[in-house]
Design goal:
The protein is an alpha/beta fold and 328 residues long. The protein has a single domain, classed as Aminopeptidase. The chain is 38% helix and 22% strand. The protein starts with 5 loop residues before the first helix and ends with a helix. Strand 8, helix 7 and strand 9 form a beta-alpha-beta unit.
Length: 328
């Protein structure tokens, strides 16, 4: 082999190093901050984003909500509870958070109550399509089954402190990451769900009258009960509606790409949550709920000690992944 001149070899080495440096530093949608996609179809930016969701933080938020009891919608402290949630969103950096009040009449235990109720709405305004809305919701009120007295205590950790905790945690991570979505994101803590789902009824009625462009709504309700010791047995139930089968299939794909949760599709109880009012107004919605049946439903024992927050984190990762991936 003919010996090459020294300067020729040097030039080849320099060119090779430049090419190597360019290829290593080049980032696309699937290579960000050292994270790589670990599952088929997963996006590294989204994977990195949802890695910040923390089970201990979800537990702390839920305990904070539990300690506000009673969170019964007819209790005298109902506005104080709503204001506290509003202030928590603002403390996390979601400064565009408001109370949206509404007046309702409820008949409960042979008595008619006329009360002001409150939804808490945190908004992250979209950079390109601010009038296009992606919503994740949960309800903050709680109740007890008879003979329990909800005026005296209604801890509501799983139902639905866990769902509100997921909203707060998604908001925290959005602010931490400095994420600006293309479309607007609304994290809504609904009031008055346990008696006739009044909060979501008021919100969707106003949205329809205002011709709001709601792309979809994800409902996180009772997402922290899972009693299987083996994580391979953990499952989430995705309940859909007549107009949202495609959204449910999309959500199932996100479950597969970003968690190890199993998934089931049993929509038997899909009328029992805030997502139902979105469906009734023609908006696409799905209802996330634990596949495991909790024995603590509407009991004084619905407390953080009976919740599974690593499981709650996995469900929260799914809704957060859908928000981020469809708005980046």
């Amino acid at each position: 082999m003919k010996k090459l001149p020294l300067n020729y070899l040097r030039n080849i080495i320099i060119i090779g190093l430049v090419i190597l440096s360019f290829s290593c530093s080049k980032k696309n949608d699937d290579t960000v901050t050292g994270f790589t996609s670990t599952k088929p179809g997963a996006n590294a930016f989204v994977t990195a984003f949802i890695s910040d969701i923390n089970a201990d933080t979800l537990s702390a938020y839920t305990l904070w909500l539990q300690n506000m009891q009673p969170r019964f919608m007819l209790s005298a402290n109902r506005r104080n509870v709503a204001v506290s949630i509003k202030n928590k969103f603002i403390q996390l950096g979601l400064t565009n958070t408001v109370l949206d009040s509404f007046y309702v009449t409820n008949y409960y235990k042979d008595t008619t109550y006329n009360t002001w109720q409150f939804n808490v709405i945190a908004t992250v305004t979209g950079s390109q399509y601010p009038d296009s809305l992606y919503i994740v919701g949960a309800h903050y009120d709680a109740i007890l089954n008879p003979p329990g007295n909800p005026w005296l205590g209604s801890p509501g950790a799983d139902d639905d402190g866990s769902g509100v905790a997921s909203l707060l945690e998604m908001g925290r991570v959005i602010i931490k990451r400095g994420f600006t979505p293309k479309s607007s994101i609304k994290l809504i803590a609904f009031g008055a769900e346990e008696l006739n789902m009044e909060g979501s009824l008021d919100y969707t009625t106003k949205a329809m009258l205002g011709n709001k462009k709601i792309r979809w709504m994800l409902n996180n309700d009772m997402i922290s009960y899972e009693n299987h010791a083996n994580t391979a047995d953990w499952k989430v139930n995705l309940m859909d509606y007549a107009n949202s089968g495609d959204l449910r299939v999309s959500a199932e794909n996100y479950v597969s790409m970003y968690t190890d949760l199993g998934k089931i599709h049993d929509s038997t109880a899909n009328k029992e949550g805030d997502s139902y009012n979105f469906y009734l107004k023609g908006y696409k919605a799905i209802f996330f709920i634990s596949a495991a049946s909790t024995p603590y439903y509407h009991q004084l024992t619905d407390v953080v000690g009976n919740c599974n927050f690593p499981y709650c984190r996995e469900v929260t990762k799914v809704t957060c992944a859908m928000l981020v991936d469809q708005n980046r």
